[in-house]
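Private note to self, pasted from the team thread so I don't lose it. Backbone tokens:
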């Protein structure tokens, strides 16, 4: 006899444990009160630059825009102490253009796929898109889960689809986008995190959002997900990465997210191999704050070259 959505939900929730919403909100409120001394602040700002997935996901993207994005990724600023970003994130049709500019540099090419941002197309089409992006040179794939299936209690279907995308990725790393605003509750975010991690490989990621909905990454939903990563690691020894995306626009916000990572997952996750920021407008504020720490003065925003901004 098939499980009802209510029964499936109760069974999975019992397996992974529920979230103390009040406790999460109290915990993340404390991250904003942490005082960071100058040397640690500069380290944190540079680390955040190195974790950024510089992104453009617009219908008007062109090869020329991708070239500009890649130049920014390789040299965010004139200061030689500032690292390259982690990746450039583009639509599948732009992967080969990005690869031409950053291939061999250490900057990864990430491609959204699986009918981003809705995920609402045939599964075979979603898999084909993943394979095409990897064939064109994508080092990483950012997929969206089937939120409709998840909210209907079809958890095995959701997990099987993720497993199929893992296989289609081959050597490329996978980032599984939960689209937290559509999952509605912290319990659902935790359950979706565990479903994804159950079929992911070391070096893969879970990710908050597409950046295309009203609510994206917050300290609270980030905390729910990194606690799930911690608990999964303690149970299995498998280290899964994390990528908050959307709405992180200031250096101050980025530092608070890094504090959350350090205090929840520890220093092993303070690397772009395990933590990313899905952002573009964030980068210039990080550079502006680094320059302020270096010179004592704020530079005008136009002092920094523009990156393509999406989320």
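Design output:
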């Amino acid at each position: 006899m098939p499980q009802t959505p209510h029964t499936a939900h109760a069974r999975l929730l019992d397996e992974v444990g529920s979230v103390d919403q009040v406790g999460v909100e109290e915990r993340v409120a404390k991250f904003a009160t942490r005082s960071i001394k100058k040397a640690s602040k500069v380290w944190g700002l540079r680390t955040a630059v190195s974790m950024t997935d510089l992104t453009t996901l617009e219908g008007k993207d062109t090869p020329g825009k991708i070239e500009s994005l890649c130049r920014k990724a390789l040299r965010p600023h004139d200061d030689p102490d500032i690292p390259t970003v982690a990746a450039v994130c583009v639509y599948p049709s732009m992967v080969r253009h990005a690869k031409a500019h950053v291939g061999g540099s250490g900057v990864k090419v990430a491609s959204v796929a699986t009918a981003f941002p809705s995920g609402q197309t045939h599964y075979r089409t979603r898999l084909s898109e993943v394979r095409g992006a990897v064939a064109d040179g994508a080092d990483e794939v950012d997929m969206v889960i089937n939120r409709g299936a998840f909210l209907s209690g079809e958890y095995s279907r959701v997990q099987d689809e993720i497993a199929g995308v893992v296989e289609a990725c081959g050597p490329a790393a996978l980032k599984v986008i939960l689209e937290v605003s559509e999952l509605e509750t912290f319990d659902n975010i935790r359950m979706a995190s565990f479903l994804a991690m159950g079929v992911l490989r070391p070096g893969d990621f879970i990710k908050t959002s597409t950046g295309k909905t009203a609510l994206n990454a917050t300290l609270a939903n980030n905390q729910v997900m990194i606690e799930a990563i911690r608990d999964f690691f303690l149970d299995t020894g498998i280290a899964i990465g994390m990528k908050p995306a959307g709405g992180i626009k200031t250096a101050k916000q980025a530092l608070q997210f890094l504090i959350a990572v350090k205090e929840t997952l520890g220093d092993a996750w303070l690397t772009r191999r395990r933590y990313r920021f899905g952002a573009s407008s964030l980068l210039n504020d990080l550079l502006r704050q680094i320059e302020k720490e270096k010179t004592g003065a704020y530079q005008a925003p136009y002092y920094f070259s523009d990156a393509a901004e999406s989320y």
